Amino acid sequence: MSAPTRYFDDSVKGFITWSIIWGTISVVVGILISLQLAWPQLNVAPYLTYGRLRPIHTNAGIFGWGIGSFIGLFFYITQRLTKTSLWSPGLARVTLWLFNIGIASAAVTLAMGINRTKEYAELEWPLAVVVAIIWVLFSINVFMTIFKRKEEQMYISLWYIMAALVGVTVLYVVNNLGVPLHLFKSYPIFAGTNDANVQWWYGHNAVAMVLTAPPLALFYYFLPKVTGNPIFSHRMGIIAFWSLIFMYLWTGAHHLLWTPVPDWIQTLAMAFSIMLIAPSWGAVMNGYLTMNGRWDQMKTNYLVKFLITGITFYGLQTLQGPMQSIRSFSAFIHYTDWVPGHVHMGTLGWVSMIIFAAVYYTTTKMCETEIYSVKLADTHFWLVLVGQLIYSITMWIAGVQQGSMLLATNTDGTLHYSFMETMIAIMPYYKIRAISGIIYLVGLVLFIYNIYKTYQKSAVSQTAKA
Asked: CB–CB of 244/217 below 8 Å?
C-alpha cells in the first residue's frame, strides 16, 4: 500500500497571508482616493495625491490581493488535483520573497511618480522584469507538478490554471516590450494607435487571464468540495473553457470604440464581446445546476453564500460587459463613473467573493479545525455584499446622470452643461461611494480577525495534542 501524498502548504499560507495584507492596503487606499474625489483638499502633494495613489490601489488589488491569492491557492489545489506534492517547495518560498519585494517596490516607485502611464502596466522596466520572473518561477512550479501528476484525469480547474499561466506570460511580456532610456524610464516599442491597440489587447485579456480564469479555476474546485455535489457537467465546463479562451482574445478593442483604431477592429471586438456571453454563462449555469438538491445550503453554509453570490456577479458582469461594448451604449457611458461601477462589481463582487470562500476553506483544512466563528463569516458576507452593491449601484446612477448631462445640447448644437456642472451634480454619489468602501473594509476586518482566530485555535489544539 502506497504512502499518502505529502502536500507542502507553507507557501500557501505565506501567499494567502501576504495577499490579505496587500488587499487590505488596496481597500484602505481605495477609500482614501474616494474621499479625495469628494473632498479634494485631502490631496497632499506630491506623494498622497489621487494621481499617485490610484495606481497603488489598482496594483495592490490586482497583483497583491488577486495574483497573490491565486498563486497560493493554485499551489493548494494543484497538489490535490494531481495527487502530487509540489514540485519545488524551495522555489515556492523564493517566489513568495520576490513577490513581496516586487509589490513593495511597486508601491514605492508609484508613489514617487515613476509610472509608464499604462493601465495595469504602470511599472517601469526593472520592476516589470521582476514581475515576469515571479510569474515564470510560479508557472514552472505548477507545470512541473502537473507533469509529474499521479492522477491521469485533468479536471477543469487545471485547464483554467494552465491558461492563466500561459496567457499572463504572453500578455505581460508583449505589452511591456520597450526601449529603456535609463533605470526609471523606458518607451514602448509600439506607437500611436498600435500602442493603444496592444495596450487594450493586454488590458482586457488581463481581465480574462487574471480576473476570470483563476477565479473560475477556484470556483470549479471549491463548489463541489463545499456542497458535496459533483460538478454538473465536466463536458460543459471544457466546452465553455475553450470557447471563452478563444473569444476573449479578440475583445480588447471594445475599449477603443470611437477612436482612430480601424472600424473593422472595433466591430470585431464588439462581435466577440457579445459572443462571450455564451461561454461565460456556461460556467454560471454549470454552477447553478451543481446546486441541484443543495439550494438549502444558501441558508446554512457560509461558503456556499460566497461562491454562488460570486458566480452570480460573474454572470451579471458578462451581461453588462458585452452591453458596454456596443458602440451606441459605449458612446453614452464611456468616460463616466458607470465604468468604475462595472469594474468593482467584478473585483469586489465576483473575484473577491470567490477568494474569500477559498481562503476560508483552505484555512480550515490546513489548520485541521473548523472556522473560528460562522457568525462572523456570515456578517462578513453581508457587509461586503452590501458595500459592493452600494458602490456599484451608486456609480451606475452617477454614470447615467453624467452621460446624460455630457451629451445634452442646446438647439444651436452647443453643450447644455459644462463639465464642472456634471461634477457638481454627481458629488453626492462620490460621498456615498466612500461610505460603501468603509462598509466593505469593516467586512474585510472581520474576515481577517476570523482567519487569525482560526489559526490561533489550531495552534492551541496542536499544543494540547502534543
From this structure: no
